[in-house]
Design a protein that fits this description.
binds pyridoxal-5'-phosphate, single chain, Aspartate Aminotransferase, domain 2, 3-stranded antiparallel β-sheet, alpha/beta, Aspartate Aminotransferase, domain 1, 38% helix
Length: 396
């Protein structure tokens, strides 16, 4: 029987964030409405400049979504039939589907379980003369651990390196490098649930490469160079000005929000240790001291923003039962991702089989994303860890 007070913890709470910003955002939206410039235009340009400044990068090209940001970069590289693009099997579908949409072949590679990033050796042994690009995904808000090593592999073979930074706007790596500094560019998503989320779909490519930025500005607008003169086969990958207006208001809060996310992540670490569920961070195997495997913050101490904790993802035993138990007690969780990409029906024709990528397949059965957002209260966070401890006491 449940005796304590029930503290409900939604997995996400956008309402709390929006309440605080409502007036400012409505004013910004009114400004766009009165301008009648609804697509691209000065609002989007301002956002591009502000994002580039935030990331200390020279160029930012806004797009209609994170997926379209990736797609237009591959289009810019001229990737097409017969080409191969090495991608993680452990990521969101769009990281790989963009290659398939251009009739190139996504070539999957397995992941390392501490930072959830693609493994260097896995990339290296899959390079062929047809390999045109490697996409690394900075999952959950952290620069993928092997990114610097993979950059060397790409340099050696003359292959483009693209960062899927959909979840990692603002994250940095050990040398203080942030997204967009490792390879050709980084692609960002501003999907509403992201740390910096629009009120609809939106995305961006950030880069140090002036030529690429110029090409992407054309590609996102049907490859149009002058009015109705089309230099490339592009698409409609343009950002709406209303989204840019929302994002500009939120960008001013982002550093503060990300600091709060990090504080909550470190508090999760402490709470799990105090509850006797984890001995420390980064353990790889379950044992008596580690019922819950905590994510390692890989570049801690080396950079001010090593991880922006878009998600706080732990690994647990009995994941489905625990998830149900938490749901029964009003606590929302998510699974990113239940099925690795090599086992997705959409990629069936590529011929992969269960067992091909053991790390990703194991993660798919164990990962659990816990609530983490700036508005999460300490009482709510205590309730999450308290219920998990209760579950393991009762069922283990
Ligand atoms: C890793 C990753 N790649 C790509 C995307 C695609 O971004 P969008 O939803 O903005 O198209 C997402 C967003 O969910 C993502 O998490």
């Amino acid at each position: 029987m449940d005796t304590g007070d029930v503290v409900r913890v939604p997995f996400l709470n956008l309402a709390a964030q929006h309440e605080a910003l409502q007036q400012e955002i409505e004013e910004a939206l009114q400004r766009v409405i009165r301008s009648y410039q609804f697509v691209l235009g000065s609002e989007v340009e301002e956002l591009e400049q502000e994002c580039a400044a935030y990331l200390h990068l020279p160029y930012a090209v806004a797009s209609s979504s994170g997926t379209d940001a990736l797609l237009m970069v591959l289009m810019g590289l001229g990737i097409g039939p017969g080409d191969e693009v090495i991608v993680p099997t452990w990521t969101f579908y769009a990281t790989a589907s963009v290659a398939a949409r251009l009739y190139a072949r996504p070539v999957f590679a397995d992941t390392e379980p501490r930072g959830f990033g693609i493994r260097t050796e896995e990339v290296e042994r899959r390079v062929t003369p047809r390999t045109r690009a490697v996409i690394v995904a900075h999952l959950y808000g952290q620069i993928a651990p092997a990114t610097e090593a993979i950059r060397e592999v790409c340099k050696h073979y003359g292959i483009a390196l693209i960062e899927d930074a959909a979840q990692a706007f603002g994250a940095q790596c050990s040398n203080g490098f942030g997204i967009g500094r490792f390879g050709l560019c980084a692609c960002v998503s501003f999907y509403p649930t992201k740390n910096l989320g629009a009120w609809g779909d939106a995305g961006m490519v950030v880069t140090q490469d002036a030529e690429l930025a110029g090409q992407l500005r054309l590609l996102r607008n049907h490859g149009m160079e002058q009015r109705y003169l089309h230099r490339y086969i592009g698409g409609n990958f343009r950002m709406d000005a209303l989204q840019a207006a929302v994002l500009r208001v939120k960008l001013r809060r982002l550093a503060e929000w990300n600091a709060r996310r990090r504080a909550l992540a470190h508090r999760y670490e402490r709470l799990f240790q105090e509850a006797g569920l984890a001995e420390g961070v980064g353990a790889m195997e379950f044992d008596a001291r580690n019922q819950v495997l905590l994510p390692a913050e890989l570049y801690a101490n080396a950079t001010p923003v090593p991880h922006v904790y878009h998600q706080y993802v732990v690994r647990v035993r009995h994941r489905e039962k625990l998830r149900q138990y938490l749901a029964d007690h009003g606590i929302g969780t998510e699974v990113y991702y239940p099925v690795p990409l090599h086992l997705q029906p959409a990629f069936h024709s590529l011929g992969y089989r269960p067992g091909d990528f053991p790390v990703a397949e194991r993660l798919a059965a164990e990962v659990l994303a816990l609530p983490i957002y700036p508005e999460l209260t300490l009482q709510q966070q205590d309730a999450v860890v308290g219920r998990i401890a209760e579950f393991f006491r009762r069922y283990d």
